[in-house]
Specification:
This protein has 115 residues and is mainly β. Helix content is 0%, strand content 54%. It has no helices and eleven strands. Strands 2, 4, 5, 6, 9, 10 and 11 form a seven-stranded mixed beta sheet that branches. A four-stranded antiparallel beta sheet has the order 1-3-8-7, with no helix packed on it. Strand 5 and strand 6 form a beta hairpin. The chain is globular, with a radius of gyration of 13 Å.
Amino acid sequence: VQLVESGGGLVQPGGSLRLSCAASGFIFRNYVMSWYRQAPGKGRESVAHISRAGDSTNYADSVKGRFTISRDNAKNTVYLQMNSLKPEDTAVYYCYTRVGSLDYWGQGTQVTVSS
């Protein structure tokens, strides 16, 4: 199983970024996918989750209405569209899935929101 994130970077407050996570090594369409983040000095927190077919999503209260998780099962990719970014969204963002009894994480992509 391999998860590879991309799309992070430096953005001004109010700006947007789109993160991508390319998955391989498992049957992508059969598994729930998630995004987590970890800010400096803080624990890792859940951001968003999406069902296998992409028809059900849920979000942390802190990102509701600003972030959108989606997936393309034909491309084995999950996305996180982040709008109206705030300085408190600064973190390393990780893609995650659980296959069987094992947890898999990507290497993370840095998102920095600053003027």
